[in-house]
Amino acid sequence: MARPTKLAEGKLMAATYDAIVVGGGHNGLVAAAYLARSGARTVVLEGRHKTGGAATTEAPWPDAPEFSVTRLSYVMSLMPPTIINDLELERHGYKIYPMGPYYQAFPEGGSIKLYADDAQRNHDEVSKWSKKDADAMPQWDAWLAGLAEVLGPLLLTVPPTIGSRKPRDLADTLRLAWRHRGLDVRTIADVTRLMTMSIADLLDDWFESPQVKGALAVNGVIGTWAGPYEPGTAYVMAHHSIGDVGDGHLGNWGFQEGGMGAVSAAIERAARSHGAEIRTGAPVARVIVEGGRAAGVVLDNGDEIRARVVVSTLHPRTAFLDQVGENNLPADFVRDIQHWKTRSGVVKINLALAELPDFTADPGSNLQEHHTGSVEMAPTMEYIERAFQDAREGRPAARPFSDGVIPTAFDKTLSPEGTHIMSLFTQWVPADWNEQPHTEELEAYADRMIDCYNELAPNFKASILHRDIVGPYQMEQDYGLIGGNIFHGELSLEQLFHMRPAPGFADYRTPVDGMYYGSSATHAGGGVCGIPGWQAARAAIADRKAARRGGQARRIIRRS
Ligand SMILES: Cc1cc2nc3c(=O)[nH]c(=O)nc-3n(C[C@H](O)[C@H](O)[C@H](O)COP(=O)(O)OP(=O)(O)OC[C@H]3O[C@@H](n4cnc5c(N)ncnc54)[C@H](O)[C@@H]3O)c2cc1C
């Protein structure tokens, strides 16, 4: 550990490292692991008592410590093989159980299951609702796979500074265009449709059955302050459906053994194995900027820690407006961050269950295939839209939407034998519920959510042993998710790719020399994918190397 050194005159000199990572969420840990691996003396400063951020496993019930929940995020999908292999995460405890099918039981009776990789069974399931839709499914899957081939590799691409006339930026833009020279008119049209359409309109073009359309709409609204009729939700669906980011096929959606906190723990072990130091209970108050350059940070307790590289992984408003300060930033960048959209209206409900839901449509509380995937509450497009419209009109949804999962269908580490954990990712409450706790209203909202499931599985309500409700206020106050947005910023079109987090600064560098940015508010975030942390570390490592060679680190002011 780098300790303060005593100077001759008795003053303490600040601890010094090569690199400081602000925030010990999974992206901060990934950044630290890569920096330490490159030989940089690295420290992670995490404000909470533990690392992980939104990828955290916790025991929320003091009187029932034998139950652990994956408190916020709950499934893995987009972590690229490069990161898993470079950091040897499997050796450090990364272990994924592939999820079972998507499952929706319907109030009018019957159910549907959709499989990620079984066309025949999908055909059988969809045929129950529409023969025409069943026949359309293979083309839909192929269409999506074709788009994923284009979009997937883009997730690992550093966005160019589009519009800049600097030779280096122009070269980046041309390189990107050249890589996509094989695209034809039809593919470009399909990407354009995906980027601009609502998931509802897109699905209307393909399918007729309300049940099938409801099922396929779920990924279009996850974590989004938008109902399924909003333009742009088609892209959100694609973001969650990409299976390959260009360096090998990603695992299908899956549950980490031990919950998402175990993903963070595996990355933390990797970072430590390369010599990174991780400090929890170390909230950062501000970034030290000297002569336009990052020089370290000051903690809440006044301690100063110095380094020539500072990687921040906090929400952009916290990282830049609060910690760097407007006076150290260009005015247009400040304006962009002030205008950053960061709403979600998400409420996470974690339940301990005495037994599995016994669905009328598929009876039995014994473990069955439909318990092993996502157990949805999204019976139709109209149902999802109504939930959003309630919140848009200023009320919590009367009948909320939910993406539910039961990780204990596989993972026996989270609860005692015979019991289960169910995680409900629900939407929507009004966008401004990050400003007040709304405790009683959240309890009533959770009651309504549970009633919705109870209508489909009549043993559900009585099976609940404990419940934990995390609303937008708690997400902001306890986890630093400003506005309650689950991705540090909405995945809306104006906040994607070269615009994430601000035009001119999508390359994981910032207006402050020596400061890098790798939170989910950068390109490829959000989600527990590690790509932002990896890219920010790569940018810092490349600039350190260039500086050591006496060359010029890639510089800022790219808007001219
Ligand atoms: C309810 C919910 C469900 C989700 N579900 C999924 C899912 O199933 N799958 C998926 O892939 N993604 C999911 N996500 C999104 C995903 O969890 C996030 O995008 C991702 O975890 C963010 O990682 P990060 O490292 O960028 O930021 P964070 O995890 O937010 O980490 C930032 C860290 O900085 C710390 N910090 C804040 N302020 C300070 C300070 N002043 N000083 C020091 N440290 C500070 C925080 O405590 C935190 O640990 C979900 C998110 C939420 C909230």
Please tally the β strands and state the result: 22
* Largest sheet descriptor: 7 strands, mixed
Average pLDDT level:
92
Globally, the shape reads globular
Number of helices: 16
Task: Give, in spatial order, the strands making up the sheet with the most strands.
Answer: 10-9-18-19-20-17-21
Alpha-carbon Rg, integer: 23 Å
Bound molecules: flavin-adenine dinucleotide
Category by helix and strand content = alpha/beta
Poorly predicted ranges: 3-11, 555-560
Helix content: 25-40%
**How much strand content do the residues show?**
15-25%
Distance between the termini: 42 Å
Keywords:
seven-stranded mixed β-sheet; 560 residues; single chain; alpha/beta; globular; binds flavin-adenine dinucleotide; five-stranded parallel β-sheet; disordered N terminus
Overview of this protein structure:
- The chain is an alpha/beta fold.
- The protein contains 16 helices and 22 strands.
- It has helices spanning 26-37, 81-86, 119-127, 131-154, 167-179, 185-196, 199-206, 210-221, 233-241, 260-273, 316-324, 331-338, 381-392, 439-456, 472-479, 531-548, and strands at residues 5-6, 12-13, 15-16, 19-22, 42-45, 57-58, 69-70, 96-98, 102-105, 111-114, 254-256, 277-279, 284-290, 293-299, 304-306, 309-312, 346-353, 374-377, 401-405, 420-427, 464-470, 515-517.
- The longest helix has 24 residues, at 131-154.
- The protein is globular and about 70 Å long.
- It starts with a strand and ends in a 12-residue tail after the last helix.
- Flavin-adenine dinucleotide binds next to helix 1, strand 17 and helix 15.
